[in-house]
Amino acid sequence: MDQNLISLVNKLQRACTALGDQGDETALPSLWDSLPAIAVVGGQSSGKSSVLESIVGKDFLPRGSGIVTRRPLVLQLQKIDEGREYAEFLHLPRKKFTDFAAVRKEISDETDRETGRSKQISTVPIHLSIYSPNVVNLTLIDLPGLTKVAVEGQSDNIVMDIENMVRSFIEKPNCIILAISPANQDLATSDAIKISREVDPKGERTFGVLTKIDLMDKGTDAVEILEGKSFRLQFPWIGVVNRSQADINKSVDMIAARRREREYFANTPEYKHLARKMGSEHLGRVLSKHLETVIKSRIPGIQSLISKSIAELESELIRLGKPIATDAGGKLYMVMEISRIFDQIYKEHLDGIRPGGDKIYNVFDNQLPAALKRLQFDKQLSMENVRKLITEADGYQPHLIAPEQGYRRLIESSLVTIRGPAEAAVDAVHAILKELVHKAISETAELRQYPTLRGEVNHAAIESLDRMRDESKKATLKLVDMESSYLTVDFFRKLPQDVEKGGNPTHSIFDRYNDSYLRRVALTILRLLFLSFSETTGSTVLAYVNMVCGSLRNSIPKSIVYCQVREAKRSLLDHFFAEMGKKETKQLSSLLNEDPAVMERRSALSKRLELYRSAQAEIDAAAWAK
Ligand code: GDP
Ligand code: MG
């Protein structure tokens, strides 16, 4: 094969490898499919195997009279950079054949294995690869000969079966057809011409090869055909003289055979003028040239396929994220960076840049006030309750003027109920803050890559929030407790006036009666009077409780924001960051343990991308090659 083609195909071969031709399961369209295959078609014993062999330049195919090729042989020539050439069968993986006589024997043995030692023909191909520094990547296909009738030992539909099988190979647009017709038979009956016309009516990929020119009847010649006069094809006919059966039997080698062929055309008067355009070597050159044209015409398509694949790979790699740094510093930096990104996203939720933080204010504006309202101080401080409480507190010796114990009891017992809503507000805000952690985690694309780190960040954030909630609860409940443990004195100093306004002159009555009997009577009266007075007491207490409740309604949110929201914004991951600083490389690595599937995918993708890029360079170089 000529040097241009070899270097062109070698460039493509490297691209091929990159594009995953070696049976890669990711199944990108294969370049083998873009590269042409060469198939020989023709009748039985027309010389197909002989022609194929001389193209390869190697004796390895079973040849002979009768039906020798009884299964298709798909032969992949694969260029290797160095080393001894060898052959391998798909059905015998890992067995390297270096002796090509043994290859020929295995082909016929494998044929027999499928068909038995009969004349039966099978459509199941044998796959053979030849690895050599002296070949280019090409697929050659040797096919059983087309027949007209089934012979003894063959099934009835064999004729159609062979034809269909042959057609299935040669109808592929990238198949170059060598239509083999023996010169010693009438071309009008040529099966090769008939079937190749069918699949390639314009003759754009069919080469007519006339064999056995040396076996023509004396007095006849093929000049008319070879000159394209009697039977025109798109490409000129090429006549060849292969080794005869006698040559094969005598093991005449390829080199000697070629020399004799050259001499034949040069020395036969009828063909002398055509000599330069005849023979196996010329056929080889013509095929090379044609392959080159075909391959070059495919290059733009291959180039765009590669660019498209590169773009796809790159975008998937971006989606998968950057690979992990290898040193401890880099790892720590990465952990910090990623955590900071999460922290930032979390803050944005609290700051209203992202949604969700507003729910906190709903707790303060609606939930807390509603909960406080549900405490129903007006019912707690109803007449009956007040009466009962005051009586119980003062017993039979009521302090008629200022039943202080009673007030205290009343107020304390009312205010203490605010603890409930206060605690509930702390918990509600805590739940929202936690929910935002989950939200921010899922929004941090960088964390998706590292499940372990994601778990740790989540854990650390929730732990911080738990701590903040505990602090907040302490502080907020303290506010409530503080309010209930000391009553604002001023508020009650106003009380006597209120009472006088109510028209209850308790002071004067009490002062006037000093006598013990009278005193007892007076006490009874006073008690009755007092009971009517307790309504006023109740409303005074209610007013006070409402006042305190109103101020707690404002200070509870302040405490919660201070202890939880502000703290979450300021120091959610402080503890985590401090812990990270103390970690060793190994621990950091385990933190950055990626999903193994992601890791695998990324490394596969990067490897592929690298190959594609070099393939792209090779193909570009091939495109410029002359
Ligand atoms: P296939 O059945 O089409 O594959 O044909 P083969 O390549 O096996 O050849 C069949 C027989 O024809 C063999 O004995 C070959 O030696 C012989 N043969 C093929 N081509 C030529 C030729 O050009 N000249 C002569 N003399 N014999 C040939
Ligand atoms: Mg054959």
TrEMBL record:
Q: Which coarse location class describes where this protein primarily resides?
A: cytoplasm
Query: Can you give the residue ranges of the Dynamin-type G domain?
Result: 32-300
Keywords for this entry?
Cytoplasm, GTP-binding, Hydrolase, Microtubule, Motor protein, Nucleotide-binding
Q: Which GO terms describe its cellular component?
A: cytoplasm; membrane; microtubule
CDD domains recorded: DLP_1
Domain of life, per UniProt, equals Eukaryota
Which GO terms label this protein's molecular function in UniProt? GTP binding; GTPase activity; microtubule binding
Question: Where does this one sit in the cell?
Answer: Cytoplasm
Outline the extent of the GED domain: 534-626
Which family does the entry's similarity section mention? Answer: Belongs to the TRAFAC class dynamin-like GTPase superfamily. Dynamin/Fzo/YdjA family.
Q: Name the chain's protein.
A: Dynamin-related protein 5A
Organism annotation: Kingdonia uniflora
